[in-house]
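Possible race condition, two jobs.
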Amino acid sequence: MADYNFGDGLRTVFLAGVGALATTAEKGQELVNELVKKGELTVEQGKALNTELKHKAEEVKDDVKAQSEKAKAEAARTEDAAK
């Protein structure tokens, strides 16, 4: 267990989260575009919704990044205490 690098694990989890977030944002935009095509949303409503989705995605990304940094710092303290 001493050979496991917590930083690598956290990095992998963080990158997976970013990938999931990017996929979700793309799918959200596709859905909005489809609704605009069908006439269920106006172009202006679609633009507003896309903007809101982008802001929410940025907030989530920033939150995940902050949590990742906090977890990484805690893991480093735990490793130091175990030595």
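Job #2 (started ~2 s after job #1):
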Amino acid sequence: MNSNSKMTSERDKRAQRRELILDCAMDLPHDQILLSTREAADVLSISAGLLKKSRMTHVLLNRTPPPHVALTSTTIRYRLSDITAWLESVLDEATRPTSAKPKPKTASRSTQGAQHHA
């Protein structure tokens, strides 16, 4: 099995797990549904390792990761409502028109020259 088919297979499995999670959650309030790290990662379409790492680094895809619930020192869960709210904010930011996005600050030429000679 080559790496492309292995990635596709994992992508398909993740999509199936995501569908199952969302199907089971349809009748329950989303703030009462707790997901494991793997389940939350499946909903976000990222790896469980990346989500786990974000708990330590406090950064996920260049933003604050979704909040988690530590039931014990080794049992971590995510509220489905927190995962969906985080994902909606990411999608909202990503689909915002370019003119509405904040522009990065850059130093003007005169400021750059003054800093260079200082």
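The radius of gyration is 20 Å.
Logs attached separately.
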